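Action item from last week, closing it out:
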Amino acid sequence: MPITEILERNAKLYGPDVALVEINPQELENRHTTWKEFALIEPSRSDSFRSELTWEEFDRKANRMANFLLTRHIHKGSKVAILLMNGLEWLPIYFGILRTGALAVPLNFRYTAEEIKYCAELADVDVLIFGPTFVGRIEAICERLPRIQSFLYVGEDCPSFAEPYYNLVSYCSSKMPAVPLSDEDDAAIYFSSGTTGFPKAIVLRHRALMHACKTEQMHHHQTRQDTFLCIPPLYHTGAKMHWFGSFLVGGKAVLLKGTKPEWIIGAVAQEQCTVVWLLVPWAQDILDAIDRGEIKLEEYKLDQWRLMHIGAQPVPQSLIRRWKKIFPHHDYDTNYGLSESTGPGAVHLGIENIDHVGAIGKAGYGWETKIVNTRHQTVARGDVGELAVRGDGVMRCYYKDEKATAEVLSSDGWLYTGDMAKESPDGFIYLVDRKKDVIITGGENLYPVQIEDFLRKNSAIKDVAVIGLPDERLGEIAAAIIETKQDCVLTEGQVNDFCLELPRYQRPRKIIFAPVPRNPTGKIEKPKLRKMYGADCLVAQQVGMN
């Protein structure tokens, strides 16, 4: 059934119960209230640092959004983009879009103005919904997006080029619109990218979203008594699809707007969270803060916390051993997936298999896996090949890109992931390398070609290659190997200054001055560079990518 029916059911069965809580810890700190004190405060209905939404309110807001969009002639096949930071409005807007039959198009909040424009044009976006953080970026491109009929602003002091979301939507009907939906209808477009760094528009059906709900709940056994702490951005499949397990059973979720260790521990204690999904840097920061005595666990009520799971990037085995030493009663899991497979869960370790940390696990609930050679023939167990997955969560296609779709999706439903893997004698899958050169740093994807192209604009640079190097906190960092032109002098400081034009997350963390090796066909020999500079040790740590 379409995923929108889950929201309708939850509203009927659990209407007055809290569905979503938003916590803004910066507001709390502005009051000079400590997180130890916060953990003892009785949760309030609404506050500047904490607000909540019931299932009834969630459902009504989604219906108002849908009915407004219908008045703007949004219909099946239309595309509505969401460019918002996490907050209580995000998910009602998402489900409101789905209830019109249109496709929701979440956008990465890190995108520059030109990246937003590129993705909006690629996905044929008809309406763009954005928040205060993005006013400058949208203003810079709005006149160059003639297809977009409405720019809806979620916030106060609406800019002149947009329309006020709250004023327009609040007067619309809160009744369910009469738009028939099916499992096979397209539901959303998420963006990914290949080795070139140019985003591809991934089309997911309602069937895929529902499959993600079931897979997550089967893996982590959420019930209505569980509370899920959601920290990652909701545009990312890794965040939303992990929440889907709680959504399926009507469990509460907490949206935490911040990643400081004391904020995470404080929110877990105050909201009595039971399931927490972390990225490696956040888990590392929590452990370090505990070691330094900045967090004293005895000051927080954490007995209810039962599961910590990680994905989206390589996870050091030492981190999990350290975590289990401090939190011995926590279940642990890691998940592997990609946006083309509706996020995490295509492969998962399983909470019962912590002795196999280092593997990404086995086929997830409702999934099949195989490891194949270049002819897509299954290799012998123990041999390295490309990991392929099949299940209801596989994307329908790359939007308007038949060639790219055919390269990764077979006629019988197998999705070829581009990740090289091998299977152990006891059936656990281990990743050994990535065909793609994507660098995953702190859960975010960096695309080396984009950084290389930028650096080549420097007149002193002859050649450049960007690779990922292992980093204890971020998983990987971008390293630029730079070959300067003859008689040119270039310092690390000059390179760093040159890179200030890049978004902060794209700037190389390490600069190496050395020749850039290329093969006879002119391609950079990145495997050789990884071996030279120590990136090969990432292979042993690779345990999941969403």
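Closing note: Residues 217 and 245 are 4 Å apart (CA to CA).
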